[in-house]
Amino acid sequence: MDLQGATVRALGSWDNRLTVTSSEDIGRLTASILAHKPPIQNEVVYVAGDTFSYAQLAEKMEHYLGRPVIRELWDMDRLRAEVAAHPDDGIRKYRLAFARDTGVAWDKKQTFNALQGIEVTDVMTWLKRQQRHVA
Predict the structure, then answer these.
(1) SS3 76
(2) pLDDT single digits (tens) 49-104
(3) Cα–Cα 20 to 30 A to 1, which of 53, 60, 70, 116?
(4) Of 102, 123, 119, which Cα lies nearest the Cα of 47?
(5) Reduced to 3 states, what is the DSSP secondary structure of residue 19?
(6) Using CA atoms, how far apart are residues 107 and 73, in angstroms rounded to an integer?
(7) Domain positions in the chain
(8) What is the pTM of this model?
(9) What Cα–Cα distance (Å) separates residue 53 from each residue in 25, 38, 46, 68, 81?
């Protein structure tokens, strides 16, 4: 893992929050949701590995690396201009969605995994695992 020029880019605001879940946890949790008794039907089911603001993500990265990271704010004007210039680019549309002032986050305490007592991977654990896979 090359983290020499580690950069955290905040989308919209440093206070915007996001929820992330590792792909491994999504697979395990999906199987648990499908096997749940009584069956869960016709409702939104939230899962979360970690929830934080972009500022907190930068702090976590600095703690993990033991040094400052580059911090860039991509404001709404920039993100809207990118979508307007490239209307068929799905990644730019996702960035704009993640830049909403409501964020793309939910309370981890109210997730399926928290309510069922299922342990999941947080950002710091995920980073440590990635480092081991590269070493």
Answers:
(1) helix
(2) 999 999 999 999 999 999 999 999 999 999 999 999 999 999 999 999 989 887 78
(3) 53
(4) 119
(5) strand
(6) 24
(7) 7-74+104-127
(8) 0.86
(9) 21, 34, 18, 17, 23
Strands (E), the chain: 7-11, 17-20, 50-53, 70-74
User: pLDDT band at residue 119, thresholds of 50, 70 and 90?
Assistant: very high
How many whole angstroms separate alpha carbon 65 and alpha carbon 114? Answer: 28
Task: Spell 29-57 as b/e; 16+ CB within 10 A means b.
Answer: beeeeeeeeeeeeeeeebbbbbbbbbbbb
The sign of the torsion formed by the CA atoms of 60, 64, 68, 71 equals negative
Task: Give the model confidence (pLDDT) of 14-56 as tens digits.
Answer: 999 999 999 999 999 999 999 999 999 999 999 999 999 999 9
By the 8 A CB rule, do 91 and 41 touch? no
HSE (side-chain half, CA atoms, 13 Å) at 66: 0
Burial of 119 (0-12, 13-18, 19+ CB in 10 A): exposed
